[in-house]
Each structure stands twice: as structure tokens, then as C-alpha cells.
Amino acid sequence: MEKGKHSVKSRWAAAGADTDKLRTTSFGKDEGRRSQGRALDSQAILLLAVQGLLGIANALSGTFLPIYLWKASQSLALIGWFNFSQYVVSGLTFWLAGKWVKEHNKMNSLRLGVALSGVFYFIVLLLGKSAVAYAIPLGMFNGLSLGLFWVAFNVVYFEITEPGNRDRFNGWAGLLGSGAGIIAPWISGFLITANKGERGYTIIFTISAITYAIAAVLSFWLKKRAANGHYEWLHGIRQLRQKGNPWRLAVPAIIAQGVREGVFMFLVGLLVYMATTNEQKLGNFSLLTSLVALISFWIIGKVLTPPRRKTAMMLGTFAITLVILPLFWPLSYGTLLWFGLGTALFMPLYIIPMTSTVFDLIGRDEQSAKQREEFIILREAGLTIGRVIGISAYLVVLPFVSHSPQTVPWLMLAVGAFPIVSWLLMRNFLRPQSREPLKR
């Protein structure tokens, strides 16, 4: 990180021509102390509400979409290719939509992303079981909607938070996500089990589409934020070519985060269903793990401050790796539940410092903050590369699963240990007192 004698505060007009000005602070020790504990404003709360509704919609249907596709196709490879196409298109959308978000209206990108997510589930409803024949196009369409939403969301999130309250925002985001995960999948599991055949899935996909529509309407209360500057298409590549640039360490750390996400985001739920063949059991699994995650996010979000990030992230990375070990016992609902509860308990120690520190790095000085869109896209490029690596590993080992069931836990341990790499690369950024440029 760059060294400076004073903290930097930069302001841009945010709503209309000259109202609702944005504060962006550097990743400096003194400013971090002054802003610790600063409350979230009304726009941050509204952004959390939109994210919460998306969390509910995704928890209702996203948890069960891989199950729906697998039941119709009996193909684990198909699920892999669906996610592969989704990750690739989402990453490309981030890069291409960055120009729209930076130079035009970022809120329209966010709203379109929400709306297309609703359209995605409407299309799945229309296709029914024949959706398996269009798995890759559906994955691409969902990737488009996710890319449009998250590129805008991340920029707005950066603009309305700062180092001292970023952990609090991420804590609340995790809390809302966990709250959605407590009740929504349980309801979905109950509805699917109670309504045999296609009807249960039709109900939950319909509810999700409606929830996305509500989120799109609510997003209109988010204030329009003025465009600023010109989009630099190759900004990320230039950062990585500069010696001593902190992003040369941060991007590999983000890639390591993405490797785990690329597999765990869909495989865990699929394994629970395959072990139980019961959607209600999957709903119960999500309820229990999300309840633990809610409590953990609430506690850690309240007590975690920038000076505590290094220790918290170290504990979190090793803990979420160790909890994979029960999966080497015969794969069952019980061993998966132990794994799920352990992950839910310790994940906030890893993900909150990781996310907050990367965004603090984006706002470390005025020039960096002015190019926040490009840096956010660089972050997403890292996540996309990592997710593609993870899903590629899944597709490579898949043919061996039928001959050696132990392949699955070994795969999960291999990709699940990558957060340790994230911590090793990020640990120098996690010390508030360390402001010297990092050499590589």
C-alpha cells in the first residue's frame, strides 16, 4: 500500500448534479480509527435491503436449481457445465458493463440485473424439465444477470461505505444472507416435498421471480449516482505489470478465494440431496447451517475492527479447511452437517476481513478511488479465474468418482484449502500499521 503523511478524503457528486456527496477514505491507520463504528446511512441500509431480497430469492430457488437439473438429467457433468458457463459470462459481463457503470447510469445496470434474474426463473418455469437441454444457455443468461447486478452493487457498496464501517456492512450482509438461508430453503424443501412432481418446483420458482420483481422496484429508491471519469479497458493488466503494486499480491489472493467458491457454491447442496434423496432434508440442512452463520456473522460483525482482521482471517482460513476432514468418513447427512455447521461458524472470520480489506485497498488514495470501477472489475476477474479453475478441477475429476468415491472429499479438501493461500498473500494488508509499498 502506498505511504502517505495524511489521510485522503475525496468527494464526488452522487445524486443528481451536486447532492448526496460521496466520502472515500484511504486505508490509513488514523482515518480508520476515526471512522471505526460509524453508522450506516439510509442508502447503505436500502442497498442491504435489496441484497437481502436477492438473498431470499436465491435461497428459495438457487439452492434447489442444481437438484432440479440433476433430477431431470442424472448428470453431474451437466451441473458443472451450467456453472462453468455462468461464471465465464458473469466475469465477461463485469468487464464489458464496467464502461456503462463508470460513464453512464450504474443504477440501471443494477436494476436490469435484478430484473433479468427474475426473467431467468420465469424461463426455467416455461421450459420445465426440458431446461436440461438448454443448461449452458441458461447458465450464460444467469451469468449475464448476475454480472450486471454485482458490478453495479459493488461500486455502490464502495461509494457508500468506508474503512471504519465496511466490516459492519459486510457483517449485516452476511447476517441477512444467513437469515434468508434459515427459512427460505426450509420452506422450499417443504413445498417440494408436499407437492409431488413438478408442482413444488413451479411454486418456488414463481415466488423467486416475484421476489426479484419486488427487489427491482425497491432499487428505484436508491439515489442516482453521477458518472465520473472515463473507463480504462486494460487498467487491471497495467496494475499487474507494475513492480511493487499491491494488486500483484491481492489478485492471486482473490483467485484463491474464487477456487473454493467455484465448487462449494453448488456442490455442497447437491451432495446433501444425493446422500438423502429428500429436498426437505436439504432445507433442514440449510436452516441449521444458516442459523449458525447468522449468529456468527452478527457477533463477528459487531466485534471485528481493522486491527483485528489479521488474526481473525488466519483463524478463519485454517478452521474452514479443517472442517472438511469429516467428509473423509462415509459420506452421509451427519458428516455433511458437521462440515456445514463448522463452515457456517468460521466463514465470517475469513470472508469479512477478505472482502473489507480488498475494498479498503481500492480506496487507499484519491487516484485509486477514482478508478474504483476498474479495480472492482479486476477483483471480479480474479474471482472468475478462480471459480473457473475450481469448476475445471471438478469436471476433470468427475469421471473418477464412480470408481473411487473418496475422490469427492479429496477434491473438496484441495479446493477448500485455497483460503489459506488468500491469507498468506493478504496478511500484510491486514495490518493497519503497515503502509509501506509491498514488493514482489
TrEMBL record:
SUPFAM superfamilies reported in the protein's UniProt record: MFS general substrate transporter
Superkingdom of source: Bacteria
Entry's localization field: Cell membrane
Keyword Membrane: yes
Listed transmembrane segments: 44-70, 76-97, 109-128, 134-157, 169-194, 200-222, 249-276, 282-300, 312-331, 337-362, 383-402, 408-430
Pfam families: MFS_1 (PF07690)
PANTHER family, sorted: INTEGRAL MEMBRANE TRANSPORT PROTEIN-RELATED (PTHR23526), MAJOR FACILITATOR SUPERFAMILY (MFS) PROFILE DOMAIN-CONTAINING PROTEIN (PTHR23526:SF2)
Protein name, entry field: MFS transporter
Annotated organism of origin: Paenibacillus solisilvae
